[in-house]
Specification:
Helix content: over 70%
Shape: rod-shaped
Strand content: 5-15%
Distance between the termini: 33 Å
Order of helices and strands: HHEHEHHEHEHHHHH
Radius of gyration: 31 Å
Largest sheet: 4 strands, antiparallel
Oligomer: single chain
Length: 300
């Protein structure tokens, strides 16, 4: 046990000394990895948020049926209820809709506002919950054919657009991640290689006294992993700050913006998983870069 601790102490000291000697070369590697992980983490988080927003829209997908001004909702309700694709419906009379609208506008005198307009300008509305999102287009077509129905609206097109955005974002994330990963590995490899060359004389002395290649170059590999871990920590800090800023900015927005904001909130598992992914990804990039750097020297 004592022997193991002695070796571990040596490796940690050599790694720390190597980081100190690297100077600005270390910062070149760390900053490159930070940019990679920041963009990757931001893209991953956005992808999660868009996916959650898509699910939220899909779970609340409903058809809004607006009636003619002279058609009361009670005349249409039985016709809508008997449709096989309808699982639930809610009627909002024009009086209820007008009262809610006036209150949202901050007008306390509802009767006075109504008198100024001459009459309630709204119409009765029936919110129809479909069996699933696939039947919504056909259901909307059937609803608009009913006598007394003025128009039918639903957000199916919005859901399709968000789904297309999600797919495009995933492909863009993959492309950017591949390019930046290769760049970060190349920079890390160059940095570690320069550090190894700067300590070439020390390495030759260690080889003369019988030190193995693994024992000589392991501190350099640990330096590469450290580059990745530090870059991951910095990237996660930036992402957290941006997320907090956006949350505070959207805190007092209208109801629809609040709906969007709620859809953008990550789950507890995702909040905990994101830094682990960034640190792990950074460590792998640093490991690969350092392995490429020391492989040529270890063979000599």
């Amino acid at each position: 046990m004592f022997k193991f601790l002695t070796k571990l102490d040596y490796l940690l000291k050599e790694t720390f000394l190597g980081l100190l000697r690297g100077g600005w070369m270390n910062w070149a590697a760390i900053s490159t990895v930070t940019v990679l992980l920041f963009l990757f983490g931001l893209s991953l988080q956005t992808s999660w948020q868009v996916e959650k927003l898509l699910n939220q829209f899909g779970s609340q997908l409903e058809v809004s049926v607006y009636l003619d001004p002279d058609t009361p909702a009670r005349n249409i309700e039985p016709l809508v209820a008997q449709m096989s694709d309808v699982v639930a419906m809610q009627t909002i009379t024009k009086e209820q809709a007008w009262t809610k609208l006036v209150q949202e506008l901050g007008i306390s005198n509802i009767d006075g506002a109504t008198q100024q307009l001459g009459d309630n300008p709204l119409v009765d509305e029936i919110k129809v919950k479909a069996r699933n999102s696939e039947v919504v287009p056909n259901l909307a077509t059937e609803l608009v054919k009913i006598r007394g129905v003025e128009s039918v609206q639903y957000i199916d097109e919005a859901v399709k657009r968000i789904a297309q955005l999600h797919r495009g974002l995933n492909w863009m994330t993959l492309t950017i991640t591949i390019i930046l990963t290769l760049t970060a590995i190349a920079v890390t490899t160059t940095t570690i290689r320069l550090i190894v060359m700067a300590r070439r004389r020390e390495i030759e002395i260690m080889q003369l006294v019988g030190a193995t290649s693994a024992w000589i170059y392991l501190p350099f590999i640990l330096q590469g992993i450290t580059f990745g871990l530090v870059g991951g920590a910095i990237a996660w800090s930036f992402i957290s700050l941006i997320q907090q800023f956006i949350s505070r900015t959207l805190a007092n927005q209208p109801d629809f913006i609040q709906f969007i904001t709620n859809g953008l909130q990550l789950s507890t598992a995702q909040v905990l998983l994101l830094p682990l992914i960034l640190l792990s990804f950074g460590a792998v990039v640093g490991l690969m870069g350092s392995l490429f750097a020391v492989r040529r020297f270890a063979k000599n």
